[in-house]
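User: Hey, my collaborator sent me this sequence without any context and asked if I could get a structure. I don't really work with proteins. Can you help?
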Amino acid sequence: MGVVASVMPLSGCCFYRVNDGRHVMDHQLFNLSPYWEQRYYHHFWRIDPLHPRRVTAGTSRLRMLSRENAGRDEGGTEYFEQFLQPQNTSFQTELYFWTGSRIVAGASLLRSDAQGAFTEQNASFLDKLVEFTASSCIIDDCNSTGWNGLQTMTPREREIAYLVGEAICNKEIGRRLNIELPTVKAHVSRILAKTGASSRAEFIKKMQSRQLDVVS
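Assistant: No problem. I've predicted the 3D structure and written it out in structure-token form, which is a compact way to encode the shape of the chain:
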């Protein structure tokens, strides 16, 4: 994200991962308020026109959203007017990183009215950047970074592990994933055992260190 910000003006951006069920998680925010991240998780992901679940397999590395085209998708106008505009955002470009037929990560790039729309030159640069990055070791396998514990987890355990790594409590994890609290606790216990973490705090520290290694 630092490379992109050095090439073109942005009001904010975030990098995230996408699990096997096309749910987004593990957000890394740059110049964005955590308040809006929580609002996104509570509601706006369901109507986000650029959400990975709305992308047809293998069709796109880049999509753009603005006031002019927001209404093309169901919920798009609400997303633009109630989520983007309150953040002083008028233009959003979404980058999708693919491994085979699966999106494994993405990035949201935001601009204000004052910064103007993304240009064709910007789009060409971003498309080439995504193509290059997707073929590199940075996101070749977003579950493999040398921490073997994550590789032994089930898809659900990895999903919960990323949320625990963001210091999200069990109750909130259950709400987001629509699972009962005892089930969340059982998953967390297995996650700690598989990663060798003696406590939730130690696990969070390991996850945060891992995330910094991946995006640096």
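In plain terms: The first helix runs from residue 2 to 7. You can pass these tokens on to your collaborator as they are.
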